[in-house]
Amino acid sequence: MSDGPYRSLNLPSHWKKVAKYAENDAFSEQQICDAVLPALAKDWRQGELAQIAAAIADIADQTQSGLFRQLDQLEALAQATAGNGFRQILVHCAMQQVDAGASGDTVVEGAAADALAIWASRHTRPIEEHYQREWDATRAGNVRARIEGGFAATRYDGLARQLLGKDAPAGLRTPPKQDGLGEGPPL
Question: What pLDDT score was predicted for residue 1?
Answer without folding.
Answer: 32
